[in-house]
What does this fold into?
Amino acid sequence: MAEPDIDDIERRMNKAIDVLKHEYAGLRTGRASISMLDPVRVEVYGSMMPINQIGTVSVPEPRMISVQVWDKSNVKAVEKAIAASGLGLNPQADGTLIRIPIPELNEQRRKELTKVAGQYAEQAKVAVRGVRRDGMDHLKKAEKDGELGEDDAKMYQDEIQKLTDDATKKIDEMLAQKTKEILQV
It folds into this structure.
């Protein structure tokens, strides 16, 4: 196959953007979000499970997450997992309901979080550029082997570059949005 698989290139670039979205979902801002608990795993019934498989996660108010644990015997394990998650959260159990107040972020913590957001964005851009490089290498090889004409190669190069530019622009927009969210007091 001489022509590069443009759909595959686009899909791989979108995958880098999806990974960034997932990383940003776990990055704490001053507001509560059910996705904040996504990285937390709880040891119940002899295996590690995500919180949303043990109870109902909701956001009753902007600075509070609540987890309604379905099985009373798992409340302590859920509480312990949230406290040990490294998210800086302090869960408080009340029967089978666990309330998790979201503390105010101080200025220094906000700056640290914007740096982390920037690192995540840079990793996504590196991934996109790697996909671009693979596509361009494939094109050069096909052209060199005579499987693809010069004009076609140029057309595909332009197409791959446009996909790269679009993906990079989207990553920059996501970073700007996340930074604004983090710095919002």
In short: Residues 128 and 165 are 9 Å apart (CA to CA). The chain is about 55% helix and 15% strand. The first helix runs from residue 6 to 26. The longest strand covers residues 55-61.
